[in-house]
TrEMBL record, chain A:
Domain (ABC transporter): residue spans on this chain: 6-245
PROSITE patterns the record matches: ABC_TRANSPORTER_1, ABC_TRANSPORTER_2
A cellular-component GO term for this protein: plasma membrane
Organism: Tamaricihabitans halophyticus
Gene3D superfamilies given in the database record: P-loop containing nucleotide triphosphate hydrolases (3.40.50.300)
Single GO MF annotation: ATP hydrolysis activity
SUPFAM superfamilies for this protein: P-loop containing nucleoside triphosphate hydrolases
Protein name (record): Alpha-D-ribose 1-methylphosphonate 5-triphosphate synthase subunit PhnL
Automatic annotation (TrEMBL), chain B:
Record-linked Pfam families: ABC_tran, PhnJ
Entries under PROSITE patterns matching the protein: ABC_TRANSPORTER_1, ABC_TRANSPORTER_2
InterPro entries membership: AAA+_ATPase, ABC_transporter-like_ATP-bd, ABC_transporter-like_CS, P-loop_NTPase, PhnJ
Keywords per UniProt: ATP-binding, Lyase, Nucleotide-binding
Name of the protein this chain belongs to: Alpha-D-ribose 1-methylphosphonate 5-phosphate C-P lyase
Boundaries of every ABC transporter domain copy: 339-607
Secretion signal, residue range per the UniProt entry: none
GO biological process: organic phosphonate catabolic process
Native source species: Tamaricihabitans halophyticus
CDD domains: ABC_NikE_OppD_transporters
Gene Ontology MF, one: 4 iron, 4 sulfur cluster binding
Automatic annotation (TrEMBL), chain C:
Protein name: Alpha-D-ribose 1-methylphosphonate 5-triphosphate synthase subunit PhnG
Organism the protein comes from: Tamaricihabitans halophyticus
One Pfam family matching this protein: PhnG
Single biological process term from Gene Ontology: organic phosphonate transport
UniProtKB/TrEMBL annotation, chain D:
Biased composition (Pro residues): 135-145
Coiled coil: none
Pfam families assigned to the protein according to its UniProt record, in alphabetical order: PhnI
Comp. bias (Basic and acidic residues): 147-157
Domain of life: Bacteria
GO biological process: organic phosphonate metabolic process
Name by which UniProt lists this protein: Alpha-D-ribose 1-methylphosphonate 5-triphosphate synthase subunit PhnI
UniProt-annotated stretches for the region Disordered: 126-157
Amino acid sequence: MASPVLAVRELRKTFTLHTIDGRRVSSLHGVDLDVHAGEHVALAGASGAGKSSLLRCVYRTYLADSGSVRMTTSGEPIELTGLPDRAMARLRGREIGYVSQFLAAPPRTGPLETVAATARRRGLDREQARDAAAAALHRLNVDESLWDVDCGVLSGGERQRVNLAAGTVRPPRLLLLDEPVSALDPENREAALSLVDSLVEQNVAVLAVFHDAEVMRRLATRVVLLADGTVSRDGAPADVLGEAA
Amino acid sequence: MTVTTTDASAIRALLADVDEARGVRQEILDEGAKREVRRAVLSAVCVPGYQVPFGSREMPVARGWGSGGLQVTLGVIGPADTVKVIDQGDDAGVNATNLRRMIGGTTDCAETTDTRDATVIQSRHRIPEEALGERHIMVYQVPVPEPLRGVEKSVVECGRMHAEADYSKMWVSLYEDIVRNGLITASSGYPVEVDGRYVMATSPVPRWDVPRLHQAEHLNLYGAGREKRIYAIPPHTDVHPLTFADVPFEVEYAPDSYCKLCGSDDVFLVEGGPNGGYVCSDTEWCTRVREGDADIVAHRKRAPLGQLPDPRRRLVGTEVEEEVHGTVERTADTPEWALRVSEVGKVHGSGGAAAVPGTGPESGSAVSPSTGAIVAAWDVDFDVAPGEALGLIGESGSGKSTVLSCVVGDVPATSGTVRLGAVDAGRTDVLALPDEQRRKLRIDSMAVVYQDPAAGLNLDITAGGNIAERLTAAGWRGYHRIRRRAAELLDRVEVPLSRMDDPVRTFSGGMRQRVQIAKALATEPAVLLLDEPTTGLDASVAAGVIDLLRGLLAERDIAAVVVSHDFAVIEALTDRTLVMQLGRVVERGLTDQLFHDPHHPYTQRLVAAARR
Amino acid sequence: MSEGMGREQRCALLAEAEPDELIQLADACLGDGARLRVLVSPEVGCITAQVREPVAAERFLLGDVLACRAEVELAEQRGWAVRLGDDRAAVLAAAVLDAEAQAGRDRAADVDDLCRAVAERGHRQAEREWAELAPTIVEFEELT
Amino acid sequence: MGYSGARGGLAAILAAEDLVRRKRDHAPAPWASTEQITERFRLAVDRVMGEAGLYHEPTAAAALRQAEGDPLEAAHLVRAQRSTLPRLANSEPVDPDELIVLRRIVPAFREPDGPQLLGRTTDYTGRMLERPDGQPAPPDASPEPEPVERTDEQRQPRRFLDLLRKLDLVVDHRGENGDAEPHDITRVPARPPAARSAVLATMARAETGALVGLWYRSILGPDGDVHEVTLGEVRHGRLPLRIRHPHTGNPVTVGEFRVTEAEAIEDLDGAEEDRTKFDVGYGLCLGHNERKVIAMANLDIANRRFGRQGPLEQLLLLTTDGLDSGGFLEHLKLPHYVTFRSMVERKQAMRAAADAGMGPRVADPAGRDCR
């Protein structure tokens, strides 16, 4: 079997809050996790169990204290925890998509430009990037009349779809999703979910946090249940979620 | 003791003998001074257009009354010479008469008013209409030898500009002149570029005479007594009046004018008195034309009739396409970074590196306990790649702007190295380069946007003129091409083109900052340094500038360093960030990581403050 | 060589002497028909006053002082004189007197006498000057 | 045949010269002898000597007479004369400590080393205009004063700066710049950046009014780097001039010349300066001219502190010489009709351009073309 796109081992993360007398807040206590190409792994667990922290540690928005996060792209696995900042920034641009529940699109730029900018970072030229961005926005039902409107004036749902379009345009090797459809109405939610599903079919490795267990059951290849910052279960959605539900 | 009477004094008799043997002649310039003048003249001939300092002596004529020209004439003249002296073209002018008496009275040379007989012609403000040949030396009396005086008041700075052939301020003044007045209004003493190198003031002669300096047969010597400068245009030297490639140089002309004495219409004419009309300024030529003793046909050929003013040609000049961009060729050994800063430090005050121990975040102070010096920055390391933006954040006084100033060259660094990928493939430490070369880097390799637009712009010139300054420094010489490029840039930074020809002083803060950004980008530098680019602007204006910068950084392959105390600016523009406190880098990382997971107590405080 | 008075001291005193007394004595020296060669014709020129200022001990050129100079040869001895001002006859005479003294000729003692008289006169002048200046000193009461 | 330029210029000049000569030299009044001028107009003579940079009272007096009392014109005559003179020697460096004082005041201290010697001064005299008819009143018939022996301290009092040094109150700059050869401004033009020796030499022969004006501008003008300082000392006196004897190589005193000297004490307050100490500016000029040396001392310390970062050094070196500024100003009286014609032509060309619809504020098509 091919090596996993993402291999997390013994990942630990504690926050030291110097502004509050150096208080330490523990988040991850040694997480082990693999995500293969074409696999959709959903993270489940109670609020505060460490789901978002894990995604952020993988994306390096958080710096892990110890443990290993390896990503395999075209060649040898790359250790993300020790990767120089510039290399990490480039890897993010080319290989990793990250879609949070919050808008990452900069204000005062339109959806098309925002999405195209991501596509260009992933190696497309200006023309190709605009085409790919247009396709992604279409697919997520973002009204064409909004494409060059300042993102700042979009509704929450529209922003989330722009985010998703940016995260998935020119599919990355690894897609990290943190509640990407929380603000969407049912119709657009379906479009978004089917987009995610199609990416998995295109061999993208997806690590996702969904609020909704039903979504996990439908889309996830595997579900990893986190509790107190560690993996308590890892298995088929029905197995893991069945018990949890 | 017996003494002879004073009447029959042996001593006095002896003195009389000595004087008789020596022969006393009234000299106004001793031999040593003449030698010095000749040495300066030789230097001036060797370096055409360069102002050679000389130990100008006080002459019996006032400074400003031809003391420089007089010294040159006395220095070069010999018994075989014949001298002609003119003032405003007139042999009988009071100044000419005065000087002729002095030259004649103290040398053995012959005098003439006929240019054809003269070998040395000392002149105020004119070149004779008669043809000059290799036997002629023109000596000009120069009141103000510095052509840059109008654009730069500091003589130190003028000296630097000449040394570095940095004449962009002159070009901008011409550009502004055309924008404001529709033509170049420089009158007499028109600046010229000599031998492709020095910009020189032409004495002042009228523009009419300027074309006759180009590839002249005769030697031109310029003496400025008060300012103690001698300069020269040797024969067969290229002399070009300063003007844009597509804006023609113009000589003086009045429609249907001619000399009311001799009828000439191809000479330099001056007002002919209260009854109107014109007369020749060159009285010798005028007389000879009337007497039929002038070669009028040959004169007409050398008259600058092809350079009469013509409004139709003025602003539709031919396009030039010789400009080059400051693009960098990347080769195999070019490093991946565009800018690399290593161990840079700056200590204000005494002690240098010895002042460093006991300062920094651990000590809680930037003041050296041993020397009292202020350690503004120490041991700062980073590099930036093309297409990447690096942030430098910290409170005011943390040293971030100091680091930037050291990189730019605004202040000398105490330690460390700075390398540019575009300079010698990154092998050269630019901090070790001479100031001249460092300044050249700022034309097309490294641009700065300052917090205060006044630091990066001349507020008294137009938006277009500010951009023209950078472009002319980079060698652009096409007026229309410069305007088009300036318009493109201003359009890109969303400055209305209707404001292009307004002085920047009339602009709002945000608009000034946009002009500064346009200027910084004019030559497409590989490295862009932004020092608090939005501080001091209203929040909404600042947001607009940030958006503009983000767009520009995204669309260009620029390596950018952004200094700001504001996390929102850093977050919006950069991928990676260094956090500085008391002159040291205390933390570095991906910008979003520093914002979401700061480790250092200082960074956490900054972030907490930013989130309030 | 004359005894008692150094050459530099003599030159300094001859430079202070009155023109007439110099010329008269020099004429007398030449009265024996001795061959005199003028090596440097009496000429008027400048001596540039170079000052070492007291703040940074840096030297600068304050300006010029008008002076004249002559050099002669008498009885195979060179006489040299410089004095302030533009009296060329006086400086020529002083050079002759310097040579006369230097050569130890007949009137060397007269030259010394002249120098001593000049020195004495200078001393008296200084005394007179001080007598005029001293009353302008501001005298403070002793504070007790 | 060639052109003959013999027109009115020369005759007019000769007639003007003659007019001056007749009115000046043959006015119906007694001739002013050189002695009269040196004895009666001592300060005017001294000022000319200082600004001309040549010490010789009869020369300055003759120049004043020829210039009809205009000190700037007189200084010009003296300088032009000096240009024709050979340099016989450079003096041995004069130590101003050797100054035999004729006047010496120490404003900063009540009782300095040595006397507060007022000397010949009108500082404390009411400025009542005296208009004697005929001869002035004879002086008081006081008996010839008793000669008093002058002590060394009275002759050459220790300078106030020495006292400050003893108290360790002054920054010591001695030896900082080695013993550099002084800049000779009469041979090598001085422009910023220049050695201090060039600035001191320039100030020593600057026009008195220009120096005072430059200093005063810092008091009431819109800008300025000069502080109001405390005056340490003002002296007038005689210095010996020594040159090397060509045969013995030893120094010979060839005479004495009078100078005025001042020290200005500056309170240091800069960020990188030693605030526990003072610094001192120095002024020295030929002859008796207290106003000039006091301005010079102030400007010396200001120039050392601020000269390079502001315009002061350029102002001192390039704008204080009376011959330069006066000469340039006077040259404006010369004919300028060639240059003026050239200017007029451009004005007319601008109007013609405006009439042709191409006047000021030309809208360049390039600007509008842009996307």
